Amino acid sequence: MRARGWDALVLSGSDPHCSEYPAARWKQIEWITGFTGEAADIVITQDHAGLWTDSRYFIQAGIQLDGTGFTLHKTRVPEQVLIPEWIRQNLEADSVLVFDGSCQCVDAVTEFTDEYSVANVPNLIDVLWKDRPAIPQTPVFAIEAGETRASKLAWLREFIAGKDASGMLISALDEVAWLLNIRASDIEYNPMAIAYLLVTGKDASLFILKDDDPDPDSCATFDILRSQGIHILPYSDVELVLSEGFEGKLLLDSDTVNYNLWSMCSADVELCGSPVQLRKAVKNDYEIQGMRKAQLLDGIAMENFLYWLEKSVQSQQGITEWDAAVKLGKLRAENEGYTGDSFETISAYGPGAALPHYITPEENAPMLFERGLYLCDSGAQYGFGTTDITRTVPLGECTSLEKEDYTLVLKGHIDLAMAVFPEGTAGCHLDVLARNPLWSSKRNFGHGTGHGVGFFLGVHEGPQGIRQNFNSTPMKAGMITSDEPGIYREGKHGVRHENLILCKEAGTNSFGKWMEFETLTLCHFDTSAIVRELLGKAETEWLNRYNRRVYESLSPYLSSEVRDWLRDKTAAI
Amino acid sequence: MRARGWDALVLSGSDPHCSEYPAARWKQIEWITGFTGEAADIVITQDHAGLWTDSRYFIQAGIQLDGTGFTLHKTRVPEQVLIPEWIRQNLEADSVLVFDGSCQCVDAVTEFTDEYSVANVPNLIDVLWKDRPAIPQTPVFAIEAGETRASKLAWLREFIAGKDASGMLISALDEVAWLLNIRASDIEYNPMAIAYLLVTGKDASLFILKDDDPDPDSCATFDILRSQGIHILPYSDVELVLSEGFEGKLLLDSDTVNYNLWSMCSADVELCGSPVQLRKAVKNDYEIQGMRKAQLLDGIAMENFLYWLEKSVQSQQGITEWDAAVKLGKLRAENEGYTGDSFETISAYGPGAALPHYITPEENAPMLFERGLYLCDSGAQYGFGTTDITRTVPLGECTSLEKEDYTLVLKGHIDLAMAVFPEGTAGCHLDVLARNPLWSSKRNFGHGTGHGVGFFLGVHEGPQGIRQNFNSTPMKAGMITSDEPGIYREGKHGVRHENLILCKEAGTNSFGKWMEFETLTLCHFDTSAIVRELLGKAETEWLNRYNRRVYESLSPYLSSEVRDWLRDKTAAI
Fold first, then answer.
1. Contacts of residue B78 in chain A, CB cutoff 8 Å?
2. What's residue A385's pLDDT?
3. Which of A433, A436, A442 minimises the CB distance to B511?
4. Do the chains contact at B509 and A430, CB–CB below 8 Å?
5. Exposure string (b/e) for B95-118, b if CB count within 10 Å is 16 or more?
6. B426, part of any domain
7. What range defines the domain where residue A63 resides?
């Protein structure tokens, strides 16, 4: 840096598509710092090396950064000093700031160009990172999704025309996958291909990395795409096409296009939000049916798992958190259409569960005993849907604090699941329904209550969310969102109860149009840890109705032992 | 307009201080259109005359505009086309738009200057409005407010210095009153003087309209102010001072300075939000004690009123909505420190109560009978606080729908009053607590749940609010806000239950710092119309505790008949 006259190096933990979960090639923050959390950015100056990450990872970062020379800068806390502010406080105007513009969104760089001398050095760590992983290339396959790619592209072309533009570059990986009804496995847990899609009024080009002799699945998929007028071009050609000129106005997605691509555009360019995100979030009937099937299969695996867990712990077989995660993975893998997990299973017992983003260790994982609470947050990708479920179960005797926490979190979960609300209501207005039972006894949790879930796509997707942050996106019929309040007591225990809920219309009356949720996830809530007097009548009725529905839906697919066990577990309270 | 080449005339229903409630002089919209609602703006072109107002006034505007040639444009509805959009749709670029810039906030005019030819004609209707009322001049008096004006001015000077400015023009009437600890009666229901306050690093000038020979109260007040180094200058001199030049940077309140003043400033000017609004909203101990006393006195008047109401209706004395409003006014006027009502009393029976902003007619007011629901929304100004209370009471037999509505609105009111929440929570996050009991049975109301209330100042004040609109202002200890959910069934009945609630600290634990509300208003909720099974245990306990507290607080001040009656009314359910 000194030799080059660089005052500060700013590196993001994302990929050229501003993905939440990048492939190994773009885990540059982990490679540099050793920190393995999913969200981190770093700034290196001559006298400081700082890593910025949020409250989910404070404990982990504290451990992993120890001795590295990196200082932890906390985000999502009231006293946070984010990177732009930190830079302004610590670097004089006209200092040279160096970005890897290929892994930075546009705003993150342009906001400095007035005050500082900004340099864009794409892939700047390539020279140092000798064994840097290659861009992944997994088979690309076509799927059914209830709407043809021709129909989706025609809709996008209408949007483009409405903006008086000639084309739009789709840079978000899940949007490329959704628009073309294709999937791959380029990123762990995320069934997407690393690709760009350029859509113009008359044609479309998919920029994707493939060897000269691609795998048969990809070949077949590309043939289908080509037959529908979609060009297949090498991944890096996107730079060529953008820099060589594009006729008319080109729309770029302000959220996910990287600075490097934006800066090399020779065309008339407009940064705007992609309309795909919202339309993708509103599932069509085919997708909803697929999601229902996925939750059913997932519920079977979950009930078999919970049965096994209870019996194994009671018979003192010495199983660990890791053993449990492995067992659950195996049970899920038996399901039709299973292609992998949708994220790394959190299998956490006692104090481990007090970390919302606990990573279950393969070696020396804590052993499970016949007491206290065990938390398991997991999910799968099926060819017809994505799942995400958390169950917290008592393994034996629980303290009264554990029982209270268990019940109040469940009460919040139920209150949100039961919500009826006017059309146009946003998730940030509903969030308090899940928190109020906890707030009433001065308890709270530090994460959002709900995130959107894709159809055989990312387990986190927008634009809706159920959280305190202002987000004006209304809950629309067809959106599938998680409902996952929790509570975390450091060194003691953690509780989280999570189902996926589908937003549906609920009729119209003189007060307007109404919406409600239908719970999609099918797996019983254990009633033995419930403090009954903390639940109201309506909440208890909801719980009994839900558990009965779980039993009725899943019992035909369970062995007689598990079925009998589940009948007892789902008995009304 | 044709002779002058004007294509459109845009007139607001506000005064030079962008007040919510202007004095008679600035009721230009009423003078032109006959519409008496509190919030309206008009646009007149060669072929259209339009009046824009919100959902509170649709029915009233429909009646009052009939035959005037004015078309109603609805605001606060999803399909609204606000004035800026309407102008862009209906007037070609470069058209001449004429504003009375003295009654328009800055943004409302400047947003057109790029596209249109904008002319500012201050007081443009003066030539037509022959008997236009004068600017009011009522006695100005000084009050105790728990903090000296010297301390408040010193604090504002710190803010000014922090913005590297030399001064700030305070244009909001309630901010002038708050900063100088002065009150007057220039605007009905609003104990303020029409004035500007210019604060600089070393001195302060109050611009206020006073005759050469002012009243003794004002003289005494001005003497006090002068003795503390505050100059008293004629109201219109503010234009002179701003246009003649001001040394250094001058801060103007972006929310309330008018376009005319802003445009004549010769100084280096910065538009910024006034810091006074937030600080004024956080009441000090003296103000809180005063507000408590005001609610106590108001509660005595309310209980005497409700007793009289019940007996009068039961003995079939043929009283009307108007008679009831007059009676309540008289009872309030007996209270120590009463200076007037804080807004026009809404005394509404049956269908009238279905209009949230019903105006009780003096002539031919509906008679009250021994059945159904009567709603009364009223408040007073005392020298030591402001009140705002709504009670809905059954006058006899009620339908089951009336009882359900009565109970569900009360349930929402109680749920909000009981809320406990983390420090930093904004009112828009809490709003759903008051709505959820209604939403659950697909009922709703079309207004906000709570507004800030001043200390012997405006009955509506910001910056906090409890409503769906995003507003990031957190609820802070010392803020006093209304809690007033409702329900309105056109042609049938209306219910609203309103108390004022004080935000307080509620301790700190491992989850952080907690806040809660204390109800300040003291007047029982009638229990006879309650459907008991719709209230939960905690809600019933709250209600019984509240009614008992009302009885204990007020009974020493009531006659034996009213006391006995109130004891029965407040019996636990």
1. 424
2. 98
3. A442
4. no
5. bbbbbbbbbbbbebbeebeeebeb
6. yes
7. 8-120
Is a pLDDT exceeding 80 seen at residue B245? no
What pLDDT sits at residue B480?
98
Q: What is the pLDDT of residue A76?
A: 84
**Residue in B430, B441, B514 closest to A442 by CB:** B514
Ranges in chain A, pLDDT < 70: none
Co-location of A30 and A61 in the same domain? yes
Instruction: Tell me which residue of A172, A165, A233, A240 sits closest to A201, measured CA to CA.
Output: A165
Locate tokens 């919970």: which residue?
A306
Q: Are A221 and A140 in contact (CB under 8 A)?
A: yes
Give B128 to chain A, closest Cα distance, Å. Answer: 44
pLDDT at A213: 80
Tell me which of B120, B152, B173 is where a domain ends: B120
Q: ipTM value of the model?
A: 0.91
pLDDT at B127: 86
B133 lies in some domain: no
Mean pLDDT of B188-207: 95
The answer to whether the Cβ–Cβ distance between A78 and B511 falls below 8 Å is no
- B420/A440 touch (CB, cutoff 8 Å), yes or no: yes
Shared domain for A268 and A296, answered yes or no, is no
Same domain membership, residue A246 and residue A171: yes
Burial letters B342-374, b for 16+ CB under 10 A, else e: bbbbbbbbbbbbbbbbbebeeeebbebeeebbb
Looking at residue B289, its pLDDT comes to 98
Read off the CATH number of the domain in which A198 is found: 3.40.350.10
Nearest to B42 by CA among B63, B81, B11, B16: B11
Residues B376-395: what's their mean pLDDT?
Answer: 98
Same domain, A264 and A330: no
Q: What distance in Å separates residue A270's CA from the closest CA in chain B?
A: 22
- A448 and A556 housed in the same domain: yes
Nearest chain B Cα to A471, which residue? B470
Beta-carbon count within 10 A of B227 CB:
8
B-chain residue closest to A441, CA distance? B420
Q: Which residues pair with A341 in a beta bridge?
A: A380
Cβ atoms of A264 and A243 within 8 Å: the answer is: yes
pLDDT attached to residue B541: 98
Q: Of B521, B551, B386, B531, which Cα lies nearest the Cα of B456?
A: B386
Q: Of the candidates B78, B432, B506, which has its C-beta nearest A429's C-beta?
A: B432
Same domain, B249 and B289: no
Residues of chain A whose beta carbon is less than 8 angstroms from a beta carbon of chain B are 78, 418-422, 424-425, 428-433, 436, 439-444, 468, 470, 472, 489-490, 506-507, 509-512, 514, 536
Residue B266 and residue B308 share a domain = no
Are residues B268 and B286 located together in one domain of the fold?
A: no
The contacts of residue B320 (CB under 8 Å, 6+ apart) are B365, B366, B367, B368
Give residue-wise pLDDT tens across range B483-527.
Answer: 999 999 999 999 999 999 999 999 999 999 999 999 999 999 999
Select from A78, A430, A506 the Cβ nearest to the Cβ of B432.
Answer: A430
Q: Is residue B130 one of the residues assigned to a domain?
A: no
Q: For chain B, what is the domain count? A: 3
Q: Kindly state whether residue A231 falls inside one of the protein's structural domains.
A: yes
Q: What is the CATH number of the domain that holds B521?
A: 3.90.230.10
Task: Find chain A residues with C-beta within 8 A of B429's C-beta.
Answer: 428-429, 431-432, 468
pLDDT tens-digit readout, A392-438: 999 999 999 999 999 999 999 999 999 999 999 999 999 999 999 99
Helix, strand or coil for residue A210? coil
Domain boundary (B261, B279, B297) is at B279
Q: Binning pLDDT at 50, 70 and 90, where does residue B266 land?
A: confident
Contact: B489, A509; criterion CB under 8 Å: no
Asked if B442 lies within 8 A of A506 by C-beta distance, the reply is yes
pTM across the whole model: 0.93
